[in-house]
Write a structure and sequence with these properties.
By secondary structure, the chain is α/β, with parallel strands linked by helices. 35% of the residues lie in helices and 25% in strands. Strands 1, 2, 3, 4, 5 and 6 form a six-stranded mixed β-sheet that branches. Strand 3 and strand 4 form a beta hairpin. Helix 2 runs parallel beside helix 3.
Length: 136
């Protein structure tokens, strides 16, 4: 039987238009007090990104943090999606394949213990680019 999911950090990445309901911020406001009160403590971080580069930079920094400090994160992404990827608030676009390498790096650094939740239309399409035969 595989070991249970272990996590010590929750990363919420929000990239929505100014006119959208700030669902990442709302989620953060509800989770952070619970995370702070938990034993052991769970770190909870909210990142609002506006460009494709910022989004990818955040993902790579999460991977590096997991690699250097042994963190096991949960990743929640709040964005607008379409069949080919996600739109960031600046109007830039990330394809599902753009997410593959940084998500793989986070998963590898967290010892195959990554949970990703994607609150975006067509988010299940990320499974088209991440295959069971790929590096985890």
């Amino acid at each position: 039987m595989p070991p249970p999911l272990h996590f010590d950090t929750v990363h919420i990445i929000e990239t929505l238009k100014a006119t959208d309901r700030p669902t990442g911020e709302l989620l953060f406001s509800r989770i952070e007090p619970i995370a702070n009160a938990s034993q052991p403590r769970v770190n909870c971080r909210l990142s609002r990104v506006h460009t494709r580069e910022q989004f990818l930079r955040i993902l790579w920094s999460i991977a590096e943090d997991a690699r250097l400090h042994g963190h096991s994160p949960i990743l929640q992404i709040e964005a607008h999606g379409c069949p080919d990827g996600i739109a960031v608030s600046s109007g830039d676009f990330l394809t599902w394949i753009d997410l593959k390498d940084p998500l793989t790096a986070i998963n590898w650094a967290s010892r195959l213990n990554l949970l990703v939740m994607l609150a975006a239309c067509n988010g299940a399409n990320v499974a088209k680019v991440i295959q069971p035969v790929d590096r985890s």
